[in-house]
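pinging the channel bc i need a second pair of eyes. not urgent but kinda urgent?? the chain im working w is below, pasted from the shared doc
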Amino acid sequence: MITGALKRKINTLWTEFWTGGITNPMTVVEQISYLMFIRILDIREDMSERILNQGGRAKLIFPEDQPNLRWRNFRTQSATQMIDTVRNEVFPFIKEHLATTDGVGRYLKDAQFMIEKPTLLVSAVNQISLLPLERNDIKGDLYEHLLSKLSTAGISGQFRTPRHIIRAMIEMMNPTADMTIADPACGTAGFLSGTMEFFVEKYTSPEFIIEQTDEDGTPFKIYPGDQLEPFRKHLQADAFCGFDFDQTMLRIAAMNMLLHGIEEPAIHSMDTLGNRFEERLSKLATDRFDLILANPPFKGALDAEGVASSLKRKVTTKKTELLFLMLMERMLKIGGRAAVIVPDGVLFGSSGAHKKVRQALIEDNQLEAVISLPSGVFKPYAGVSTAILIFSKGGKTKNIFFYDVQADGFSLDDKRNEIKDNDLPSLVESWKQWDDGKGDLAKFEDRKAKAFYVPRTELEENAFDLSISRYKEHTYEEVEYDDPQAIISKVRKNAQESFQALEKIEELLK
């Protein structure tokens, strides 16, 4: 995690762009991402040079006859020289050369350099030079804090999932480093990068955890991930797979994965609801995914002509939230699991498509959990009420775990200030108790509690309605009122006292 001092550096960098005239949050993140990548290339080159000097084998990135391409060299130039170098030498090199040779570089072939003011570029370069991008344990957190600055919704109903919600979902699913994990609408790759961060912590021996303090004196921990070594190749090549059709999101997602230690991120430009993805998926005989973590866009509706035929056969609808659920079922291996955020309408919608999707999750798969989230979780992006669905492909639904999250540790208004009330730790702990011992139903029989279960038969009786309000029992305290005559007497007494006070004031005014 990062603490106050480093957050202030990111905040200062963000402010530099706003005061420099670039005020679109997505553009700011994109331009900072490019500059971070350019500096990371220089850090990589330093490491390769050291390896070569020690007699080892390494591949250099920059041509010897173009020293201006390196961060360490152009950062000392004057403002007018620097902007000319970055615009006319560095960016063309990234887009034309690295687009075919570097894992993240290939996402930058359409990148546009949007910084027009030389002074802004100098300031941004100086600020980024102060960031500890050479530290693997912290650079991912730095970028996540930068992404948290995105305060406007993206296109097609996209908005960034709060990091603490992502973390709770990952902890509930408790993935292992040998799994294949996907997000069919990955956006900034928050679920995928968050899972890598989870692995680093999970696979660190307790004796290797490093406790430090930042320059403000705030304590924090470093997790080396020493037990991840047997999984390194898998994590770099096969473990994570993200899809999105927004090119800007793809570039940000690739950078996010790079800063979390994935050098060759598998982030693909693709509409996963379309026929092209269906063709790709149909070629994967058994090599599908162990786990899907997602918050797909709630666009509302799309062109039915562009929807894959296999999805149309499952459900007749244009609603993306329903189509994505059927897509995830198709993407999973038998026994694979999904944890996905959906709008509340999925839980109780009365259309034939809504009922059919819920029926498919319950009858053809194992619906495991319905977790109700408070409506302010996605503010300031949106006030939509949402829930988390957890299901396994195949199997048989017997009993479904319900949890009523009423607080997530932040105020449920646009400010989203941190507060003490937080049900997420209890949610994770309750889920682990349920998931580890599904036969112990007695702990979850009380429907007045936040965590309880509902048998499948009851869902069937209610047309597969999954809204928590239908099944949760509420306790109402009886309110006792005073006798009406006593109330009248009090009102009369108050009126008399008010009249007497007015008489005294009137007497003083004479």
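so The chain has a mean pLDDT of 87. and Residues 36 and 471 are 50 Å apart (CA to CA). — does that match what u expected or am i reading it wrong
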